C-alpha cells in the first residue's frame, strides 16, 4: 500500500514521517519524498490517527489523483533545486514530463489550475529562495551562486532576484531583517 504525503521536501522530512509511522507500530517498507510504501494495508482508524499526527507536524495526506500529481511536481522541483544543485540535463518541461511519464502540457495546465501559478514561476520562486539561503550563509560569491543554480550569468540571477523580491541581491545581503519563506508557503 502506498500513502502519499504532502509537504515532504527533504531528508529530515523523511526521517520525521518514518518516526510517526514507527511510533504507531507501522514499519514502512520505504519512505521517499511525498510517498510512503507500507508492507500491508492500514485500517481507517490507523489512517485517521496517522492524519492527526502528520498534521500536527505540518504534513498532510493526499487522497485524490490531482493532488498527488501536483505534489509530485512540487517534490521534483524542490528536490532539483535543494539537492541536485539544479543540474538539469534537459529543460524543466522535459525533466518533469520524463519523471512523471505524462505530457507536460497536461501537467502544466493542471498545476496552473490548482495552484494559480505556473510550474515555471514555482520553479523560479524555489530558486530565488535557495539564492536567499546561500546569500544569508555568506559562503559563496554571487558568481558561485549563479553557477551552482544554473543561471547563465550573474546579471540574469540579479534581474530575476529583483523581479521576484523587489531587491537586488546585494541590497538583500546588506539587510538582515528580511526573512526567507518556508518552502510550503511558496
From TrEMBL:
SMART domains: HTH_ARAC. InterPro entries: Homeodomain-like_sf, HTH_AraC, HTH_AraC-typ_CS. It comes from the Bacteria. SUPFAM superfamilies: Homeodomain-like. Gene3D superfamilies: 3.30.70.100, Homeodomain-like. PROSITE patterns: HTH_ARAC_FAMILY_1, HTH_ARAC_FAMILY_2. Residues 71-175 form the HTH araC/xylS-type domain. Keywords: DNA-binding, Transcription, Transcription regulation. This is AraC family transcriptional regulator. GO terms for molecular function: DNA-binding transcription factor activity; sequence-specific DNA binding.
